[in-house]
Amino acid sequence: MLQLYFSPMACSLASRIALMEAGIEVRYRQVHLVTKKVADDDSDFCRISPKGAVPVLVLENGDRLTESAAVLQYIADMKLETGLAPRFGEPDRYRLQEWLSFTGAEIHKAFLFPAFWYKDDGSLAKPRARITQTLQVPSAHLTQREFLVGDRFTVADAHLVWALLLLRPAGIDIAQWPPLAAYLERMQTRPAIREAIATEMALRKAVAA
Ligand SMILES: N[C@@H](CCC(=O)N[C@@H](CS)C(=O)NCC(=O)O)C(=O)O
Predict the structure, then answer these.
(1) 30 phi/psi in degrees, rounded to 5
(2) CATH assignment of 91-191?
């Protein structure tokens, strides 16, 4: 069985959403990102991935896949019929990769990562200013569209949904971008997304308690 190493409400939430949307069974293995310990057996997560970061998807043959963009596409390609990614060779496949890169680099690493991992000693002023400009891009794109790519839900939406969910705890009010606020609300009517978030919020509360 596949295994997903995750941490509650971390970027691995997008992979959980994709797995649930695809109806793929997987063993979820929770990681403590500060201690780098795997919750169920207290083992060293860095032995699973020297990157020390989630998501890690362990494939049926034991290979380990990291990086959300790769993991999400792998999941989508396991169940081509779900349309969670356009097929290779279709022009929209590159649009999907464009959005996965944008969310991973421009929203996650340029803003969310420093917002959650670095103390706000003033050094976050520039990332905070930039994220306002960055979010105009998906906001404008989603003004007339239901989804990021084509006319159906894809793993690029799973990725963006996760990033948008973290804006509020990072101190950014999504209401500034009505198309993004409406998109996030719409996406959360999907049963898989609702269930994935509820599961991880409960786990997060349990860790905090
Ligand atoms: N480029 C990676 C970034 C993964 C990443 O930074 N994951 C965070 C959680 S959102 C993490 O595990 N951080 C722990 C660390 O970097 O020590 C991806 O897109 O999957």
Answers:
(1) -80, 140
(2) 1.20.1050.10
